[in-house]
UniProtKB/TrEMBL annotation:
Biological function: Catalyzes the base-exchange of a guanine (G) residue with the queuine precursor 7-aminomethyl-7-deazaguanine (PreQ1) at position 34 (anticodon wobble position) in tRNAs with GU(N) anticodons (tRNA-Asp, -Asn, -His and -Tyr). Catalysis occurs through a double-displacement mechanism. The nucleophile active site attacks the C1' of nucleotide 34 to detach the guanine base from the RNA, forming a covalent enzyme-RNA intermediate. The proton acceptor active site deprotonates the incoming PreQ1, allowing a nucleophilic attack on the C1' of the ribose to form the product.
One GO CC term, this protein: cytosol
Keyword DNA repair: no
Lineage of the species this protein comes from: Bacteria, Bacillati, Bacillota, Clostridia, Eubacteriales
Binding-site list for substrate: D92, S93, G94, G95, F96, D146, Q197, G224
Gene3D superfamilies noted in UniProt: Queuine tRNA-ribosyltransferase-like (3.20.20.105)
Protein name: Queuine tRNA-ribosyltransferase
Domain tRNA-guanine(15) transglycosylase-like: from-to ranges: 13-375
Organism encoding this protein: Clostridium uliginosum
Domain of life: Bacteria
Length: 378
């Protein structure tokens, strides 16, 4: 393929880009809708994702390896065919599970030994295994295998972990090149993103960013944030790292975050985002609107015949009232979760469209401040 990422415009540090992939073009900044097990929790289908203007779906390597297994997905033609989604898919590497399953794993130079969270079965995943699994899944973008470092961690621990993550990245790249050149590989154009780590130590982060930039990967992620540090610390690290990542490649902030986090990170040069927050909040009746968040279960909405967010074009707001959706929750009807997840994901996807328009129109700073005021954050 020719050049994949084109930086179309900058407004301050905010970047407006276009990323060409084997499964379609991604307009950035973009929010990836999280479907860990090849489905969005809350009974949201791939057809729904198109209706709510999702550009990229994200699934998880570790979870799909366990169930139904990457080999089953491969037999069925890869993840796109399996879940009936013809737009880009990014697969996380399993590296986050090194962090989230800390009580069930052991890290070695060769990789990580896990006990399955499903049945306790012993499994091993290293850089090569992660690339092989992601190749079987045939996602558009594969993430390199890394360790998501807990916060707080000592400087010594962080330095050792980052050095190992660099060695793992080198092994990922070699394995990915080998897999993409194999005759029976489903997606021979699978892309590889490397991950910057370093905890809250700016100098370690910067050194690592410079090191992985030399590897000329398809994109670069900033990992290991939103894991216990303050928002101010997160923004400080983004400010430190972004200038040392290549301007002609997409930059992805992993696992972040709130609408305000996204605005702040876009303002610092980030292109890609993902987070379980909108779907998780939706399943519990917590809804995002142009005026801020609210809980649909509150008694004051019992007779409220307005949509969730007046002016919103999501399927829930186009057809149902707050009173009805509240009733569905009280009656424990699954439709309640579905409608709220659809609304929240549409809110995020539409926010990204508004951000792109603001960068295109040279008014992103004003847009950001206006949104933070409307959400009663400033």
């Amino acid at each position: 393929m020719s050049k994949k990422y084109t930086l179309l415009k900058k407004n301050g540090k905010a970047r407006r880009g276009r990323f060409v992939t084997p499964h379609g073009t991604i307009e950035t900044p973009v929010f990836m809708n999280v479907g860990t097990l090849a489905a969005i929790k809350g009974a949201v289908s791939s057809m729904d994702l198109k209706e709510i203007e999702c550009q990229v779906e994200l699934s998880n390597t570790y979870h799909l390896h366990l169930r139904p297994s990457d080999k089953v997905v491969r037999e069925l033609g890869g993840l796109h065919k399996f879940m009936n989604w013809d737009r880009p898919i990014l697969t996380d590497s399993g590296g986050f599970q090194v962090f989230s399953l800390s009580g069930m794993r052991k890290i070695k130079e060769e990789g990580v030994y896990f006990n399955s969270h499903i049945d306790g079965k012993r499994i091993f995943m290293g850089p090569e295994e992660s690339m092989q699994i992601q190749s079987n899944l045939a996602s558009t973008i594969a993430m390199a295998f890394d360790e998501c470092i807990p916060n707080p961690s000592t400087r010594e621990y962080v330095e050792n972990s980052v050095n190992r993550t660099t060695r793992w990245l080198e092994r990922c790249k070699i394995e990915m090149d080998k897999l993409n050149s194999s005759q029976d590989t489903l997606n021979k154009e699978q892309m590889l993103f490397g991950i910057n780590q370093g905890g809250v130590y700016e100098d370690i982060r910067i050194k690592h960013a410079k090191t992985i930039t030399k590897m000329d990967l398809d994109g670069y992620a900033i990992g290991g944030l939103a894991v216990g540090e303050t928002h101010e610390e997160m923004y400080r690290i983004i400010d430190a790292v972004v200038p040392h990542l290549p301007e002609d490649k997409p930059i992805y902030l992993m696992g972040v975050g709130t609408p305000a986090n996204i605005l702040e990170a876009v303002d610092r040069g980030v292109d890609f985002f993902d987070c379980v927050l909108p779907a998780r909040n939706g399943r519990h009746g917590h809804l995002f609107t142009k005026d801020g968040k609210f809980n649909i279960l509150n008694a004051k909405f019992e007779l409220d015949d307005r949509p969730i967010d007046e002016g919103c074009k999501c399927p829930a707001c186009q057809h149902y009232t707050r009173a009805y959706i509240r009733h569905l929750f009280k009656a424990k009807e699954m439709l309640a979760m579905r409608l709220c997840v659809l609304h929240n994901l549409y809110f995020y996807n539409n926010l990204m469209k508004e951000i792109r328009d603001a960068i295109d129109g040279d008014y992103f700073k004003d847009f950001k401040e206006q949104k933070l005021r409307e959400w009663q954050i400033i």
